[in-house]
Each structure stands twice: as structure tokens, then as C-alpha cells.
Amino acid sequence: MKVKVWAALLAVYLVWGSTYLMIRFVVETLPPFLSAGLRFVVSGVILLGWRRLAGDAAPTLRQWRSAAIVGTLLLLGGNGLVCWAEQTVPSGVAALIIGTVPLFLVIADAVRPNGTRPSLRVLTGLVIGFLGIYLLVGPSAISDGMSLNGPGVAALLLASLLWAIGSIYSKSADLPKTALMTTGAEMLAGGFALLVVSVLSERWSVFSFAQVSAGSWLALAYLIVFGSMIGFASYAWLLQNASIPLVATYAYVNPLVAVFLGNWFAQEPLTPRILSASAVIIGSVIFMNGSYRGKPATAQGVGK
After folding, report:
1. Confidence check: pLDDT of 125 > 80
2. HEC per residue, 128-183
3. pLDDT value at residue 141
4. Calpha distance 283→277 (Å, rounded)
5. What gap in Å lies between CA 22 and CA 24, rounded to an integer?
6. Mean pLDDT for the stretch of residues 161-181
């Protein structure tokens, strides 16, 4: 069993850590919302078909409504904005900013009705985490000569907030009983929302599928097969067969994997500033999670 657990954990580490780099390759020649919409519609259809054949009950109308809300928040608001931002922001930096989702999750949980009031330790972790964000995206005086695109950074912070809101909402929403059926429904609903936004906002007059590179298509296929299918299947299996603190380590490892892959395969900068911010942001999440006796404050969503 230990071998299976670590194999699944390694899959989550590497696969979800690599999705940020793959997104960068996809949006080089494919519109961001279109590519994300295609990814999640295809993944959702496959997951729903698989789970129905396996005997899972089909979602009810009320469950579809909940899945549409969660899928829109997580996939349109979360993943869609990540895809849009990675047109101008390095994939490793994007992963680090999205790594702050647990910080936003604590805030969203605290302000909701009957939410959990954060402890002093959690508040300290929040302050440390946002100092890490400031170190990463702050003034040019601490930037190592690397300037980050302002709208792209803002989109990533908004994506983190929307992902946190969607995660909190999903805790009390009426959703299918099995994790994979829920994920399939959320992917399909969120994928359609992404395609609607793509039709309404992206520049179709200057886009042609003939201009899409083979690299972008291959990266999109990787995101569908590995990022959405294998990654989440491994994650769902781990939740049933491994301790939650062990599974939660993906939230610490994924940003580091993304930073180093971006540097190795896309020549993205790996400066002392980025490394320092990585240590501060990831350290703050580890520090906060140490105060949770049960489930850590890491976001549980529909994959990366």
C-alpha cells in the first residue's frame, strides 16, 4: 500500500505541478478561455461517462445547479483567469500566487455566516503569507530587475479568491455523493461557462485554428489526460487511502515543481526574490496548517 500511496502522491506532485507550464504552452497560440473550456468540457464528458458506467447515480437538477455554481467559480473564475494571466506572467510565478489559495480560503471561511474565526496562529500565517506576496510582486526596488504584469498579477489574485469562495461554497452545496461524479459535473458546467466567455470576449476576427501550433495542441491534450483525469483520479484515491496531512503536502510541493519546470523548460527567471517569496508563501501555509487538528486549510477543488 505504501508504494501505491507514494506513486499516487508523486503523480499529484508532478502532474499538477506541471500544469502551469502546460498552460503557458497552450496559450501561446490558443485563446485562454477557449482552451480552458475545451479542456474541461472534454474532461467532464469523459469523467461523467466513466462514473455512470461504473454505476454512480446521475446528478439531480439541484445537484447540477450546485455543480454549475462551483464549476463557474473554480474553473471560469479560477482556472480561466490563470490561463488568461499566463499570457503575460511566468508560469512559476502564477503557481506561487495560486499557492496562496489557502490564505484566501481562511478569509472566506471567516467572513461567511457561521464561519470559523481564525486563531492567532492562523492570523500570523496570513500576515506572513501576504508579506510573501508583497515580496513577489512588490515595488521594483525589491524586484531583482524583473517587473511583473500588473493586470496579470491582479487576475491571479482574483482567481485565488474565487477558487477559495467556490471551495467554501462546495462544503455545504448539494452535490453528487462520489468525488469523481462531482468533479465531472463541475468540469462540464465550468467548461461550458468558459466557452460562453470565450465567445463573448475573445478576438475571433483575428484567430484561426490553422495558426494553433502542434505544441499548444499537445499541451492541451496533456492537460486533459494528465491534469484533469490522472491527476484528479490519483488525488481522489489518496483522499480515501492516505492521511489528509500527507495528501495536503501537494499544496506545498506543486508551486515549487512549477517554478523549477518553468525555469528548466521555458527559461523563466529563477531569482533570489522568487526563491525567497516561495519560501515565505509556502512556509506560511505550512505554519497555518499546523494549527488544524483535522483537515488542513488547503483548498479542495477540481484539480489544476
Report:
1. yes
2. HHHHHHHHHHCCHHHCCCCCCCHHHHHHHHHHHHHHHHHHHHHHHCCCCCCHHHHH
3. 43
4. 10
5. 5
6. 92
